[in-house]
Amino acid sequence: MFHQIEGLAVDANITFGDLKGTLDHAMKEFFGSSVKTSFRPSFFPFTEPSAEMFVSCFICGGSGKRGAEPCRPCKQTGWIEILGCGMVDPNVFEFVKDNGYDPKRVSGFAFGMGADRIALLKYGVDDLQLFFNGDVRFLGQFA
Ligand SMILES: [Zn+2]
Fold first, then answer.
1. Where do the domains of the chain lie?
2. What distance in angstroms lies between residue 113's CA and the mean position of ligand 1's atoms?
3. How many other C-beta atoms are found inside a 10 Å radius of the C-beta of residue 61?
């Protein structure tokens, strides 16, 4: 089981720049204004082009180390993969073009990120199962 947060923006003239700006802003709001973001080409079935988005490691500050120890959350790279995204493939709009989404007139971007994984990273939780055990002593700290 996992939970996913998905986003979809569709309008005239939506660009990859809109995708990058929106997600960069969201990650800075969530992890702090000092995080940097990076996009690397990837493949997802319904977006073209597609990318994986990384944020600079907010745990080690991008150094890859926690004191003398290696930073495990970023695997010592200084970057954490945070979500998948991309521009909606025009072929997807073909299926709904009779409802006003002519692929020649609209474009869009989409993204998906694991809510559980982001919570683990943001709050430094070691075990995902803690979120689902129903222990109010644990859950209460997030209220
Ligand atoms: Zn790190």
1. 4-137
2. 19
3. 14
